[in-house]
Design goal:
Blueprint (H helix, E strand, L loop, with lengths): L5 E3 L2 E2 H21 L2 H8 L4 H13 L2 H14 L2 H15 L9 H28 L5 H38 L1 H13 L17 H4 L3 H16 L3 H10 L7 H26 L1 H21 L3 H25 L9 H14 L1 H14 L2 H31 L1
Antiparallel strand pairs: 1-2
Length: 395
């Protein structure tokens, strides 16, 4: 089947199938993530600093891989192969967490999972772009929505399965949706025809794409990544405002529900009104979400902040990736996605260590205010990106 055939919602079958792969992978991922903070703190005796360090190391250690995988995809033109390897590694690693007996075990397995994500993210995004027409915002929005539907199902399943299976049983259960995801990817997803011939892209081509507009965009995206501290702190904050620990999986599900609802509208808004404006709106939603969470003293106000946080995620994660093809040359698209993913991943370790330290030493309110301030700076940098692009178009 040609990847350009329109089969549903105005996008190709390849985009829908990649979305289904992400759906099942996210079920397995979010089954774990919705209970991992409480598992670490309650069962393994970890502190908030350790929780933040685990998430920071897991994300940051894979950031360079995202650049390498994007460059390799450009060089070979074989984006599906790297995507398959990445999804397979993640989905094989996660069930082993059922045997973890210390936070060191969790750290090692989270690194393995994130290495898989590091390998697959840039070539997969390039596949989506290659399978899209001019409505690339819609393509990423639909993919993101299918992805996040899995992120809703995962924590709901975790809530239902926690009592009968326990933490270890939930981790082992992730093997089922993970196997389905790999099978769909291998059997049904096609290598899309590249819009350019494979080139000899190597890492030095990262310098070739760093024009002023792209550089400012990366600065803004990096500041945003520094502001978007881990989910783990939101779930720990939920317990502080009076939500029982066994209900935190449903708090996580609420985030993902509003993430889903905002994905496709964000893609449509970015296509119609401008992708950069859509990203900036997402940054401002994050600022409002963290400020609300920081000052909440009751569960209902906290949950309103959680809803805003979910809306921000759907807006940013759809629109951010859709901007990139307009900022760089077609033949370096995979490398550009790699640079973007590397930059935002590189700050995960320091920002989560900082948030964990602030959370433990000053209190949770200050950790979220820290995120709010960085979100404001990210929004200002995005405004500067818009101005740079405007000047470029006027020349």
């Amino acid at each position: 089947m040609e990847t350009k055939d329109k089969v549903l919602l105005g996008v190709s079958s390849n985009i829908l199938l990649l979305g289904v792969v992400s759906f099942f992978t996210d079920i397995s991922t979010e089954l774990i993530m919705s209970v991992l903070p409480t598992f670490l703190v309650i069962s393994l005796g970890a502190t908030p600093e350790i929780v933040g360090t685990i998430e920071g190391i897991a994300e940051s250690m894979t950031s360079f891989l995202k650049l390498v995988s994007g460059a390799i995809a450009d060089r070979t033109g074989k984006k599906k192969r790297l995507t398959v390897i990445g999804y397979a590694l993640s989905n094989i690693t996660k069930p082993i967490m059922g045997f973890a007996t210390s936070w060191w075990d969790v750290l090692a397995l989270r690194i393995g999972d994130r290495i898989g994500k590091g390998l697959r993210t840039a070539p997969r995004d390039a596949m989506i772009a290659d399978s899209s027409d001019s409505r690339i915002g819609r393509s990423f929005g639909i993919h993101r929505t299918l992805d996040q539907l899995g992120a809703v199902v995962g924590p709901v399943l975790a809530f239902l399965l926690l009592i009968p299976l326990g933490y270890g049983g939930i981790f082992l259960f992730t093997a089922i949706p993970g196997a389905i995801a790999i099978a769909i990817l291998v059997i049904f997803v096609k290598e899309p025809p590249s819009k350019t011939k494979p080139n000899k892209a190597i890492l030095k081509n990262a310098r070739a794409i760093m024009n002023r507009s792209f550089s400012m965009y990366i600065v803004s995206a990096t500041l945003y990544a520094a502001s978007a501290i881990s989910y783990a702190f939101i779930l720990l904050r939920a317990i502080e405002v009076g939500i029982p620990a066994e209900m935190t999986a449903l708090v996580y599900a609420l985030i993902q529900i509003f993430h889903v609802f905002s994905g496709v509208p964000a893609g449509e808004i970015s296509d119609r009104f401008g992708r950069i404006r859509a990203v900036q709106a997402g940054y401002l939603l994050l600022l409002a979400a963290f400020a609300t969470i920081a000052f909440s003293t009751e569960p209902w106000t906290f949950l309103f902040g959680v809803i805003l946080f979910g809306m921000h995620q759907g807006t940013v994660e759809t629109s951010q990736r859709a901007v990139i093809p307009s900022l760089t040359k077609e033949e370096f698209k995979g490398t550009a996605y790699g640079v973007y993913n590397m930059a935002v991943g590189a700050v995960a370790l320091p920002t989560n260590i900082a948030a964990g330290f602030i959370y433990a030493s000053l209190g949770s309110q200050y950790a979220f205010l820290y995120g709010s301030i960085l979100a404001l700076f990210a929004s200002l940098a995005m405004a500067a990106t818009q101005m740079t692009l405007k000047r470029k178009m006027e020349k």
